[in-house]
Amino acid sequence: MSYKSLDAISSADIAALGLPSEVADQFHQSLSEIVRNYGPATPETWRQISNQLLLPELPFSLHQMMYYGCYRGFGPDPPAWIPDPEREASTNVGKLLERRGKEFLGPRYKDPISSFLEFQEFSVSNPEAYWRSILDEMSVSFSVPPQCFLREDSSHPGGQWLPGAHLNPARNCLSSNGNRTLDDVMIVWRDEGEDTLPLKKMTLNELRTEVWLVAYALESIGLDKGSAIAIDMPMDVNSVVIYLAIVLAGYVVVSIADSFAPNEIAARLRISKAKAIFTQITEGCWAGAEATLGEVMDDHRMIIASRLARLYGDKTDGGTRFVFGSFLLDFIVRGDKSIPLYRHVEFVAVEQPVDAFTNILFSSGTTGEPKAIPWTLATPLKAAADGWCHMDIRKGDIVAWPTNLGWMMGPWLVYASLLNGASMALYNGSPLGSGFAKFVQDAKITMLGVIPSLVRTWKTANCTDSYDWSAIRCFGSTGEASNVNEYLWLMGRAQYKPIMEYCGGTEIGGGFVSGSFLQPQSLATFSTPAMGCSLFLIGNDGIPLVSTIQPYIWKK
């Protein structure tokens, strides 16, 4: 479709999109003033229009008229969001560069925005200084500090990260430090269908109490440390507590999406050699679930199932143990022995070498048997560092990303929010409708992660209409190829906040290409390699086609 340049648009053109004539006249008057001050076709013109004129309730066709009219003939990938020097200096990376930019870059340092490209290169060429500063900023603590941050080692392709270090990432998630206090809210959630009820919240003190309780219960089962324990549940407050407890107690989480059929669950349990599984059974469904669970577990594994009725007890059937009950109770029953679990007694975290496994995820299995993808104790630090650097996650943020612990973004959400002192927002239900849109409004979510197909559904159904998403500071997007018009629409729901495209891999627990608050962001486009990463395009002969892929640079 062809759009007029902004200086050629009339009040009648605007009214033709469905606006009352008086509203169209007022809009046109404001538009004309912006064009006089900034020109008809500049990125600054678009920033003024998107920030001052384009309200979410205006027809999307008007948003398109303004965007495409402003950038008519501009060229590929015009910026849909431009950083403001004063505001972006207060971001995580901006504040770090303001304090230490000259130390890192010497006389090349100018300001956070102008020097971002050099800082990204510095993060690759000086991993020792870069990663030390980032983990310090995130207040990550080690029970045994690393000997260095990256050591060249022929037995570790690409080098050995954090050699000699011991840590427990769950303990870091639960610690009170400069990033938070015990009274800070760590998890906000709502159940689908309870849209008119107040949000449910869990403070750091309450989260620690519940995680310790489950960790004690796990120890009582008698599994060897390092044993694999599966989670096959929706991503809700219960599964997050269980996840952290497994890690805190020194076991390995086996992440299984709750949407999988029994044979898919069985394959992942077999591959991971899981010794137990947490799952969830709704009230009244025990008989059918018992048979299904029996299909996927052998006689040597334990099933720990949470029932909504919060009953507790012990049931043995053919050698397979079913221990079911709400872990929110003060004890768990195993056999004929009751083990008291005191809520406020701190569980001493199991600290392990950094190369110990903490999580086993899987490839999709669409092209054959799923492949196990293990995370070491260093992987959560990569996830959290990406959130700190690229999505600017910090204390005071409320982070939501509809996902599941069976996919990489589930554990990523846990670590990217909690390790950075932010709150995690969980909606227990479908994110496709107006209930989720209202949750985003009520929870005042500041970073909302999406996949393009989810945005497409929202746009088609217009289910975000009338909800206030102005608290959002940025979006994150991953998983699928993005669409320019759909993402222009998404930005408009939050008064044109940036979308940080994010692409990486389960193997590294994060991204290798993304966006930054210190760079202009174009629609459906990456602007920079992830911090600490160099990217290469490899030819058929295995030789790089170019030396490196450089960050996006936009010049006025």
UniProtKB/TrEMBL annotation:
Pathway: Phytoalexin biosynthesis; 3,4',5-trihydroxystilbene biosynthesis; 3,4',5-trihydroxystilbene from trans-4-coumarate: step 1/2. The keyword Zinc does not apply. Signal peptide: none annotated. InterPro entries: ACAS_N, AMP-binding_CS, AMP-dep_synth/lig_dom, ANL_N_sf. Keywords: Membrane, Phenylpropanoid metabolism, Transmembrane, Transmembrane helix. The chain crosses the membrane at residues 240-261. Residues 199-537 form the AMP-dependent synthetase/ligase domain. Residues 118-173 form the Acetyl-coenzyme A synthetase N-terminal domain. PANTHER family: ACYL-ACTIVATING ENZYME 17, PEROXISOMAL-RELATED (PTHR44378). Belongs to the ATP-dependent AMP-binding enzyme family. This is AMP-dependent synthetase/ligase domain-containing protein. It comes from Rhododendron griersonianum.
